[in-house]
Amino acid sequence: MASTTQILLIGAGELGTAFLPHLSALPHTHVTVGVRTPEKYSHLSSLTVSLLPLDITGPSEVLSQTFANYDIVISATGFGQSTGTLLKLAKEILDAGLLRKKSSQSRLWFFPWQWGVDYDITGDGQGLMPLFGEQAAVRNLLRAEADGNNVKWTIVSTGIFMSFLFERFWGIVERERGSVTVRALRNWEHKITVTDVSDIGRILARIVSGDVDAENTVVYVAGDTVTYEELAGIVERVAAGKEVKRETWSIPQLEAELAKDPNDPIKRYRLVFARDGVWWDKERTVNHKLGMPVIDVEKYAKKLFTT
């Protein structure tokens, strides 16, 4: 009889809940969802899903002992963590791997919170995004120490969530009553990679199943990679006759806007996303290699503009 793979999923927000149905459907697998207040998430419990009270800001020794009980730990905690939390978690995972090694258990497989851009390229966004810099530091720590600590790791770069591309506060696609404005960061040839959260969950399940070689490496997924020119064309096709206006937010313009309000996080994000490291070709992605159908920008936009 096959043994049961124990997965700890940290977090039950937008991404964690998108992961859960795909992970819990895997054969011979049990998923434990670690959250601060399990009673709020009792609806998630099932035969293959249980809940665990977990505070990742707690004592490292206790957390490492907890993590050592699982074969796979997947972080879906989101960006709302205080500075240092993600690096703290990575160190606790490394300690958990050593605890498993002492008891002759298999290597712990860690998926850190890296569900975003290519932090090896962006770094800290030239000082604008300390959290991005921490993400890069997590990568460097895992590359340097994981093997010796009985840990293997996989970083899954997804681009931004597809829904984010159309959020009003982001300002890239701004819908009004009779018109839509599409704005390009940097220029119209600049690109952005986006993936729908449900597709990230489907692809993650295939990675966990071993359908792709993903040990100790960065892998890429993409629902779509589009230029801003292509994005504007998509909006024109799906906007049901509305006038589509186009504006360019160049890097100098974004820098000037940020200088007026240097603490505005959205203006910081816009400038970072106007630079490199925020897109990759679809042909190099896990989903492309596996032949997996995914939601692209046009399919997502059609649904958005017709509801």
UniProtKB/TrEMBL annotation:
Record's protein name: NmrA-like domain-containing protein
MF terms in GO: oxidoreductase activity
Keyword NADP: yes
UniProt keyword Oxidoreductase present: yes
Pfam families registered for this protein in UniProt: NmrA (PF05368)
InterPro entries: NAD(P)-bd_dom_sf, NmrA-like, NmrA/Isoflavone_reductase-like, PCBER-like
Record Gene3D superfamilies: NAD(P)-binding Rossmann-like Domain
Keywords: NADP, Oxidoreductase
Domain NmrA-like intervals: 5-253
Domain of life: Eukaryota
Residues spanning the signal sequence: none
